[in-house]
Every structure is written in C-alpha cells, then in structure tokens.
Design goal:
- By secondary structure, the protein is an all-alpha fold.
- It contains 6 helices and no strands.
- The longest helix is centred in the middle third of the chain and has 17 residues.
- The termini are far apart.
Length: 137
C-alpha cells in the first residue's frame, strides 16, 4: 500500500469567492464589511476582486479580518495564502506582467548601474558661478 499525499488546500481565490457567495455577499459588500470591521476605510471591491482572481494575495492583517467577517478559521485562510504565495514564486512571470513579489521600474525612471546610457543633465553642465558681494571675484 502506498502512502497517500494529503490533498492540496483549495486555492485562496476560489476559497474566498466561495465563502463570500455562501454568505450572499457581493464583492462590494464584503469590502464594506472589511472596512467597517478593521477601521481601514481604503479597501475597495477591486482589491477583493484581485484576491479572488489570485492576482494578489492578502497579507496577515487582511487575512485576520477576512476570517472574522467570513466566520472562517484564520488557519484555513493562512494555509491557502501560504500555498498561493509559494505557487506565485514558483511560476515564471506571464508576458506583460511583473514578476511575483518584485517591483518593476516605472516609466520615466532612469536605469541605475552600468546600463545607464548617459550621465544626468546636471553632471554635464558647467558649475554656475555665484558672485558673492562679500568676497572679491
């Protein structure tokens, strides 16, 4: 008899969506409940949607409040979030998407290091002379 491997936990996104729907809540209603419970007024339904589509993984703060609002053990959510983070790190970035856990340079920022093509503008200008009335030129 071969030892069976334990079943993988349900992915966090579908788990959140299932728990939310089981309570008859919309993403907007869930976001409003999370804001009211946590005292943080900035969570929107868009962030809930990103969690459910697994584009982002909520951190420990929001996992705790999700557990309270959805009446679910926080361990269940934390386990699913841990697996989601591990899976995101293991996959290569999709074309046109930033790598998981990393920042991408914003448009307009100059590269640093040897790939810099030219010095900044202020380095190529001659120093401007200031005349000071208390010193002779």
């Amino acid at each position: 008899m071969t030892p069976s491997t334990p079943p993988a936990p349900e992915p966090l996104g579908p788990l959140l969506a299932r728990l939310r729907r089981a309570r008859g809540r919309s993403q907007q209603a869930l976001a409003a409940e999370l804001c009211a419970a946590s005292g943080v007024p900035t969570l929107s339904r868009h962030e809930v949607s990103r969690w459910e589509r697994q584009l982002r993984v909520p951190g420990g703060f929001w996992l705790g409040w999700l557990a309270v609002v959805l009446a679910t053990p926080v361990e269940l959510l934390a386990d699913a979030a841990g697996h989601a983070r591990h899976a995101r790190r293991a996959l290569p970035a999709a074309p046109g998407r930033p790598p998981a856990g990393g920042m991408t340079p914003r448009a307009g920022l100059r590269p640093r290091g040897p790939e810099r093509l030219r010095p900044p503008r202020h380095a190529t200008r001659p120093a401007r002379r200031r005349s000071r009335p208390d010193r002779p030129a």
